Structures are given as C-alpha cells and as structure tokens.
Known about the structure:
With 517 residues, this protein is of the alpha/beta class. Helices cover 28% and strands 16% of the residues. It has helices spanning 42-53, 55-68, 97-105, 119-128, 132-135, 154-160, 214-228, 253-257, 279-286, 302-307, 311-337, 370-373, 400-407, 422-426, 484-491, 510-513; strands at residues 15-17, 28-30, 73-78, 107-109, 112-113, 164-169, 183-185, 203-206, 236-242, 249-252, 289-291, 298-300, 346-351, 356-357, 363-364, 377-380, 389-391, 395-396, 436-439, 445-448, 452-456, 462-466. The chain has an eight-stranded mixed sheet with strand order 7-6-9-3-13-16-4-17, sandwiched between helices. Strands 19-20-21-22 form a four-stranded antiparallel sheet, covered by helices on one side. Helix 1 packs across helix 2 and helix 7 packs parallel to helix 11 (311-337). The chain is globular, with a radius of gyration of 23 Å. The two termini are 25 Å apart.
Amino acid sequence: MDHGQGRLRDGFKGRIEPDPTSSEYPLKVRSPRKKKGAMLPRPLLFLFLLWLTGAQAVQDTLLASEEDMPPSVLFIMVDDLRDWTGYSGAFSGVRTPHLDQLAERGTVFTSGHCPAPVCKPSRTALLTGLSPARTGVYANPQQWPESISETITLTRHFMDEGYTVAGYGKIYHGQGSLEYWHEFLYGDYSPAPQNPKPADALGHRLFIDDSETGDGMRVNHAIRFLQSHSPEAGPLFLACGLVRPHTPWDAPASYFDLYPLESIKLPRVVPNDLEDVPRIGQLMAERPHTDKYHGKDNAWSHQAMVDANLWKINLQAYLASITFADAQIGRLLRAWEASPYAEDGIIVVMGDHGWHHGEKQHWSKRTLWDVGTRTPLIVHAPGHSQAGDHCDTPVSLLDVYPTLVDLCGLAPVTPLDGVSLRPLLEDPQTKWTRPAVTVYGRNNVALRTRDWRYIRYADGSEELYDHRSDPDEIINLASDPAYQTQLYRFRDQVPDCAEAAPVSPRRQSWFEQVGLR
C-alpha cells in the first residue's frame, strides 16, 4: 500500500534516513529550512550586531524578531469522522472530552463540509486548495494530473515560507508526500487483531494499550518531534493524521466498554427514503461498503447489517473508535500546551468527510447528502476569535488552506478555490454568500447553504432539501413547482467540472465500473 513515498522534487536538498525509533515505516526526511534570504549563522549575526550597534540594540533586535515570528500550527486530520462529537450533540452519548475542551477554546464550524465525500479527492482538494471540479480528482484510484503536479501544496508553501514542517500519519493520500515535509512518518495502518469478534463485524476490540496501536504510535512520534524541536529554528507546522475511525473500527477494549449495546440509540432511518431520489443518487446509496481490512472482501448494505443483527454492534465499534481517536488528540494537545508554541499557536482539527450508518439506506461515505459531506472543523486562533464561538455558516475544507495562510501572514497563493475564514472567526455572524461545494464524480455536485442543500447529477437530475423544516433531507422538493425559483438560483452556481484525471492502472474507479464516468 502506497502511503506517500513520493519522488523528491528537483532541487530538494533533503535526505532519506532510517528511523531508529520505529519499525513501522522507516522513512524520515530531513532538510534545511528554506528561508526568505541568506542569513548569517546566529552566533555570527549576534557578534556582528553587537559590534555594529551595541548590546542594547542587539537585545532589542532579537526581541523584535521573536515578536515578529509567525505563529506555529498544529494541524490534525481525523479519517472518516462524521459530525458525531460531544460538543455538537449530533448523536446521543458520543464521548469526545478533548475535542469538547478544544471547542470551548476555539471556534466551532458546525456546518463544515468536505470538497469530496471520499479520502483522496477530499485531501487532494484541501492540501492543494483546488476543487475536484478543477483538478478532475474525483475518486481514490485516480492519480494527480500533470496540470497540478507542480501546484504549491499547503505544506510545501509553509516550507517555502520558513517553517519546519513535520507530518505523522495520514495527511496526503499516497501522493508524493516526501516532497512536502522536512520529516514524515506514516506508520502501520492498524495492528492485526488476534482475538475473536462477531462474525463479519467491521469493528474489533484490541487488548493492547493506546500507545501500541498505529494511531498511538503516530502520536508518540509527533510528541517526540514537538518536544525536540527548538523555537530558535523558527516556526513549526506539525501535522498529525489519525486513521480511526476509518474501518476497521479497531480500538482498545476499554473504549468499547464506554458504549454498552443496550445504551446505543440508532440513527433515524426512513424505509422509503430513496423513492424520490434520482437513479444516480440511488446507485450511490446502493453501493455497498466493502470490508477489506480483516482479510475479507465482504460487501455490506444497510439491509444486510440489519438482517445480521450487526447495526448496533458496528455502531458501538465506530463510537469506540471516535473516542479512541479523541484520546489520542488529547495526548497531542497536552504536549502542545506544554510546548513554547502554545501561547500564540494555531490549532486546526477536522475530519475529511462524513459517514452513513444506515441513513438513506447506506453504509459508508461516497454520497452527496449532508451525512456524507458534513465533518467537524475547529479552529483555535488566538487573537482572531472568541473562545467558545460557534459559526453555523456552511463552509468548505477548501477554506482551510487560505485561512492558515491569512492567519500566519504568509505570501498569498494563487489559484485557490477556497477563501479565508478569518472574517467568520472574528465575527461568526458575518454575512456569507458562498455555498459549500462538494463534488463526487464528474458533474455530480452538491451545494450547501445555511437553509438549503441542492444536488445536481451528471444526467441533469436534481435534489433540493429545505433544512429549516427537513434537516434529515427526507423530502426532495426538486419536482415541486413552488421551488423552481430556488432551483434556478442554485443551477447558476454549479461549477463546470474538469475531465476526470487519470485512473490508477491497478483498478478502475467505481464510476467507470457502473458506466457513470
């Protein structure tokens, strides 16, 4: 499995070394930080300034340079995390105490939406700042097209602006990651389960400590780097990507114990919910989830989950994985707070897309409904927001790149398809007219505003939902004559979609398989 062993870009001066602290994925990349101009080594610079202007001037200069240093960034991504958190109240009984505490300190975007409802397209969009509609990256098997091969990615831009950039875990999705880090380590996907579990369940109790899991080890490495990095080396961009709650929902047994089966409430599922959905939407909903991580290749539909009495069992495993991921986030946040970067440092935490647990008769991601596109987004930016603010305006993960560039005072990058969220951080009630746009497959597009969700499929069929009266998106209003004016408004905002990017020669995309390319 390729988790990011990319080629080094021409002229990149880093070197690859074995990592003596890990047998997981022994690659590290180290490189001198690229600075904006040639500088004397610090001791020589100090002596030169001392000779030139005197000791007091030197002290003033050094203090000023520290004050002018841009803030460091802690960047956390959580795989397959829908908007089920304690602070959101979106699902009863979810335990995320560390995310809840961060939400009390930062700004919560309660309606954050992914650029695409699947891992690689969503992460490609977030980290390049370019929508799938521009790049043509719509599905996991696709490759980055030549048109964006030289794009300045988020992490590369921070490197070019003088930051030390380190990453641990899943950030990019197997795309040339070594070009974009001074240090990078992916690590094992998941430890192999050794104990029995319910037949064909997607989750598994692990009888090991947190630090022995793949995510636990990733956080260990991130903490070690944080504690060893000196502020004298300049600002830090530290990224950590957690795999859970991606399947398999394996977590230490203690997290399963927090969710007794009898206490779990099922999400609302309407039996005939697909009757007013266009055929393309039905095909997306009928696409089964495939469990390939336990040495099987079992395809699961919602009805199969119900018939096998696994609905609650798999919900339990997903919830346990969420709380386990929250605990790892807590460990990293504690280390950050104990570091010299915490006072003015920026923290951003997000998922990469949503996940269905039976809604619309679907299990998994890969849909254009709210359940498939909505994911948590928290931004803690000292000096730019009030602690505990909640912003209900729908925003896109595409906005994360320009937001961090803006907050850190970096040189602007063009083109970017998102915009800075700084106005909403400073005032969550700021008028915002941009819809959050999600693309899944060429010309299948969803637009989300505060009150509406509009979906247009490649064949021109449509869905329209009024979130003021129908937050679960049960009643499709697209065929109702009373809503034609609203439809016309949304049609004008649908982006033109680029041709699909090349597909990996190893496998077809699902769109090709079902003839929807």
